[in-house]
Amino acid sequence: MEFKKRFDAFVKLGNYLNTVAEIYESNNGHSTSSDWGQAIQTLEKAKNENGWFTANSITFALKSWANALTEHNLSQWTSKYDFPSKTNPKTIAVIMAGNIPLVGFHDFLSVLISGHKIIVKLSSNDKVLLPFIANFLIGQEPSFENFILFTEERLNKFDAVIATGSDNTARYFDYYFQKYPHIIRKNRNSVAVLDGTESNEELALLADDIFLYFGLGCRNVSKLYVPEDYNFKNFFEAVYAWKDLIYNNKYMNNYDYNKAVYLMGGIALLDNEFMLLKKDENFSSPIAVVFYEEYTFKEALEEELKEASEKIQCIVSKTGIPNEFSFGEAQHPKLWDYADGIDTLEFLLNLP
Fold this sequence. Notes:
- This protein is an alpha/beta fold.
- It has two domains: 185 residues, 3-Layer(aba) Sandwich (Aldehyde Dehydrogenase, Chain A, domain 1); 129 residues, Aldehyde Dehydrogenase, Chain A, domain 2, CATH 3.40.309.
- 41% of the residues lie in helices and 15% in strands.
- The strands form two sheets. Strands 8-9-10-7-6-11 form a six-stranded mixed β-sheet, with helices on both faces. A five-stranded parallel β-sheet has the order 3-2-1-4-5, with helices on both faces.
- Helix 1 packs across helix 6.
- It is globular and about 60 Å long.
- 35% of the residues are buried.
- The model has no long low-confidence stretch (mean pLDDT 95).
């Protein structure tokens, strides 16, 4: 299949996702048009199968990918690579996570835009949305039918692997796929570095970085670095707009459980009745909990973060730390903001 056909199909997909998201959002999960009824029913099915996949989360994911899949963005992303005029497609096995809606879509996009075939092993937590997208692509470009396969069976007959999982599963992946070209992704978390000069608007955007998808994504900020004696008053006021998270049963259960465990252990907490702030040196905080750590010198903190780079997905700040993201941008990565800093498209285009 020619590169332009693949490219154009994903541009059409972006337009389609935007329309579906708008209809889903404006009609509260219902469609007044039979033309869109099946698509909305599919989104409702995804929501009903996973309590973390709310209508807002699904809509946000669809709109985010719709914004990414414009002709301009796809051109800017792909223009720095050499795509062969005649493809020699390999078969890429992709094992996907399911912590947030469409979390594995970038790998799916990268494999297909590079001209390869994909075998997808979906997470049991997200089995609806990607097949829905694949069906649309095949409808726009029937050649994709021979390039996309979903399986629940043991993977076989593949040339390379992209797998995402926990630190424990990553050890298994490393062993099992050691003889294949591979990208193996482990646990990562995102952090924010504050210096005390942040405006209320910036702190409100930071709240988005923390609470979108209930904090389940690797790009969600799970830890704050703050100056010594930092006053959290403005921070708590800014994040209060997310207070309705507590009405999600799964989130509320985690909040209640973690609060009880910490209090029983005599651990000091800052609490605003829907989130907990805990002083902790670790990166990966439980749901409804944000860790924080104080720092004295920015230069020393930069060095510390550099040494821990394999555990960090992105850094949100305005302090001038290399490769930092602006407040509110953690969950709006560009197509070229690769997970774990590994250029997926370069890996795929240079397979032996």
